[in-house]
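Quiz preparation item.
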C-alpha cells in the first residue's frame, strides 16, 4: 500500500481496538474476567447467547461458560443460556449441535424464528411496499431474520435477569458485516478488538475441535444462497482482513475494498445521530 493508505490502515486499527500484541492466555483471562465482572456489576444473573454453529458464537459461548463458573465460585448465582435460533431447518444444524456439546451450557433453548420472520415478510408484501428483485427481497428477509433472533435473545435475557452477548469482532466491524440492531445489537461483546485469526486461536486454546474452529464462515441469512461464505460477500479473504488489522502489508486492491467498506458502514458502528452530532 502507498503511504496514505498505510496511515488510514493505522487509523482503522486504532479505532477498532486491535492490539499489536496478542497473548492467548492473557486474552482468555482478560475476556473471561470482563464477562464475569460485567455480570456482577450489572446485578444480573445470566449471560445469553445465540449459537449459530460458527466459530464466533462457539468462542463467545466458551468464554461465557467460563465466566459464569467464575461468578459461581465467588458465591453468586450465575448461568449461561445458549439459544438455538434456526429459521426452520438450519443447513448446518449438525455443527450447531456440536458447538453445544463443546460448550456444555447450563441451559440450552431452541426457538424457531421462521413463523415470526415469515409473518413480517408476508405483512410487508401485503402492504404494497415492493421489495425489489428476488435477490433484494431475500436480502431484506435475511436482515429480518437477524433482528428477530435478537428479539428472542432479549426476551430470554429479560425473563432470566440476563445480559445478551454479541459476537462482533474487529474483522466483521471493519467490513460492516453485521445487521444493524440485529446481530450487531448486544449488551457485551467479548470478542471486540480481535480479528478472525485471533478468535480462532482462542477457540483452539479452549479445546474446540479444528473442524469447528476452521469452518468456512457464513452468516447464512439468505434463503436463495444458503451457507454463502462471508468471503464471497466481502470480495477479500479473512486472511487479508486479518493481515490488514495486524498492520501487515496488504495488496492495494484488497486494501481499497476494506477501506471503502469501513467508510461506507460507519453508521453501523455509531450511535444514532441527531442534528447536533452530524
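Solution:
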Amino acid at each position: 500500500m502507498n503511504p496514505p493508505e498505510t496511515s488510514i490502515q493505522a487509523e482503522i486499527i486504532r479505532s477498532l481496538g486491535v492490539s499489536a500484541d496478542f497473548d492467548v492466555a492473557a486474552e482468555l483471562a482478560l475476556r473471561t474476567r470482563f464477562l464475569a465482572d460485567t455480570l456482577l456489576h450489572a446485578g444480573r444473573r445470566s449471560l445469553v447467547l445465540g449459537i449459530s454453529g460458527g466459530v464466533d458464537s462457539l468462542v463467545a459461548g466458551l468464554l461465557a461458560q467460563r465466566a459464569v463458573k467464575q461468578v459461581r465460585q465467588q458465591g453468586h448465582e450465575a448461568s449461561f443460556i445458549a439459544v438455538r435460533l434456526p429459521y426452520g431447518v438450519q443447513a448446518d444444524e449438525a455443527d450447531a449441535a456440536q458447538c453445544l456439546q463443546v460448550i456444555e451450557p447450563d441451559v440450552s433453548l431452541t426457538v424457531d424464528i421462521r413463523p415470526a420472520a415469515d409473518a413480517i415478510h408476508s405483512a410487508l408484501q401485503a402492504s404494497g411496499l415492493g421489495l425489489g428483485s428476488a435477490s433484494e427481497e431475500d436480502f431484506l428477509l435475511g436482515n429480518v431474520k437477524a433482528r428477530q433472533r435478537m428479539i428472542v435473545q432479549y426476551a430470554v435475557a429479560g425473563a432470566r435477569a440476563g445480559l445478551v452477548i454479541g459476537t462482533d469482532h474487529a474483522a466483521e466491524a471493519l467490513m460492516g458485516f453485521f445487521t444493524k440492531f440485529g446481530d450487531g445489537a448486544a449488551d457485551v461483546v467479548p470478542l471486540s478488538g480481535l480479528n478472525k485469526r485471533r478468535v480462532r486461536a482462542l477457540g483452539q486454546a479452549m479445546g474446540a475441535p479444528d473442524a469447528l474452529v476452521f469452518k468456512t464462515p457464513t452468516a447464512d441469512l439468505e434463503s436463495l444462497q444458503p451457507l454463502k461464505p462471508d468471503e464471497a460477500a466481502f470480495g477479500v479473504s479473512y486472511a487479508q482482513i486479518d493481515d490488514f488489522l495486524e498492520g501487515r502489508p496488504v495488496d492495494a486492491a484488497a486494501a481499497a475494498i476494506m477501506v471503502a467498506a469501513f467508510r461506507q458502514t460507519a453508521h453501523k458502528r455509531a450511535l444514532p445521530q441527531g442534528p447536533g452530532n452530524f
